[in-house]
Amino acid sequence: MSVSVTVEPTRNENSVVFILDKTLIPPGTGSPYPNREKAQSNPLAKALFEIKGVSSVWVLGNEVQVTKTDQVTWGAVKSKVVETIKRVES
Predict the structure, then answer these.
(1) Using CA atoms in the order 69, 43, 82, 73, what is the torsion angle rounded to 10 degrees?
(2) Taking a C-beta distance cutoff of 8 angstroms, is the pair 47, 21 a contact?
């Protein structure tokens, strides 16, 4: 079964929230992954860091906030993030 992903902007132009129709971790808890090294323990965060331009990942309940570098556009990153979430979480 494929997971559904909704994309919502944030006040930070370099961060976008990807909302899933399933819970990843218990509500009220969060898992920050500020870099590739910290993400090694989480398969989704690890996979998201394989996308060029991803600089940090934060998992909170059914949301994944991804922050990108200034060197890439959301046009180049957003669809890859959605594809990765669907591949890893389905």
Answers:
(1) 10
(2) no
